[in-house]
Amino acid sequence: MNILSESGVLSSIDDLLENLKSSGVKLDKNVESAFKSVNIEDFVDYSVEGFWQDKPVTFMTTMAGAEKNISAPHMIATLLHHLEIRNGQHFLLIGSKGGYLAAILDQLLGINGIVTIIEPHNEVLEHTIDTLEKYNSKGIIRVLSASSMDYFEDFEKPVDRVLITGAIREIPEFLEVILQDGAFVLGPFGGTIQQRLLKREKNFNQWLDTDLGGVVFGPMDTFSAERNPLDPYVLAENLEDSLTLMSDIIEINETIYQSIEQLIISLRELPRDIPPISEETSEEEILEHPVMDLIMSEMEWLAPIWPIISHITSMDLVSFEDLGDESSSMAGGHKDLVP
C-alpha cells in the first residue's frame, strides 16, 4: 500500500495521511493507526481511487439510483478530532456510511468500546451488515434499524457520543431522552444545501452549542435524495434554504423576500398526494401539474431570480418561457426538470 499510481495520484493510506497532515488536518497517532488498520476497499462497491485524493467515495447505489457516499478523509479526520474519543466509550452512529466509519471508531474505542449504528435506509442497512460481518472488530458493533430506537432502554451502557453523518435540522427526540449530562452530539445541522457542523453538549437538560464551521453533507433522511425535485415539500425546503443563504450574501428586496416566503407557504399547503413527475410524464401533464401551475403563476417576480436559486440548489428547471412556446425544441421536455 505504499506505491504511487502511474498518474501520480495518492494510492496509499500512508501517503494520504502525510498529505492530510501537511494540509493542516489534525491527526493524532491513534487516528492514524485506525486509518491504517481499516481497509476502505472492504466497505465499498466501487473504485476507491478518489479516496486517496481526499475525495468522498460512493459505497453503494440504492435501487432508486441514489448514490451513498463515505465522506472525504479530511472530513472523517475532522469529525474524529472533535469527537474527543476515549477508550471504552459507547458511540451512537446515526447513518452508517457503509460500516467504514464504525470500523474506524471501533479501532479507537478498543475492546471495551461499543458502536451502535442506527441506519434509517433498509438497503444501506443490509449493505452495512454485510460489510461488518467480514470485519474483525475489537469491541462491540451492532447495526440497528431506525425503528429499533423504540427499545433504547435496552442499552446496557449509557451513550457517551453521538455522530450524525447526514444533514439534519433538529436533534432527534429520542436523543433528548437517552443522553445524560456531559454527552454530546456532533453533526451537520441545517437544510439540504448547506449546514453548520455543531457540537451540541447536553448540560442540565439544555444544549450548549459549539459552531465548528460550515459544511455540506447529504441528507440524513436518505429518502430525500430519492424524492422528485418537484415534490412540493422538497421544493419548499430548497427555496427556504436558498432564501437563508441568499440573505447572508446579498441584499434582497423586501417585496421579493416576502414573495418567496409566501411561495414556500403555498407549496407546503398543496396536497401530499400530488402525482410525481417521471420520465413518462408528457409536457402537457407537466404544465398542468399543481406545482408547475403555482410556479408559473409567480413568474413575473420569480423569473429574474430563478437563475440564482437554481445555481444554489443545483436544480435546473427548464426555461418557463419555453414551456409555453410551441416552437420549443424540448423533446419530451421534462428531462430538464431533474437536477
Annotation keywords:
339 residues; alpha/beta; Rossmann fold; 2 domains; 7-stranded mixed beta sheet; two-stranded antiparallel sheet; 9 strands; 37% helix; globular; disordered N terminus; disordered C terminus
Strand content: 15-25%
Strand numbers in spatial order across the main sheet: 5-4-3-6-7-8-9
- Pattern of helices and strands: HHHEEHEHEHEEHEEEHHHHHHH
Radius of gyration: 22 Å
The dominant shape is: globular
Distance between the termini: 38 Å
Q: List segments where confidence is low: pLDDT < 50 over at least 5 consecutive residues.
A: 1-10, 222-226, 316-339
Question: What's the CATH first level of the largest domain?
Answer: Alpha Beta
As a percent range, the share of helical residues equals: 25-40%
- How many beta-strand elements? 9
Mean pLDDT: 82
Domain module count: 2
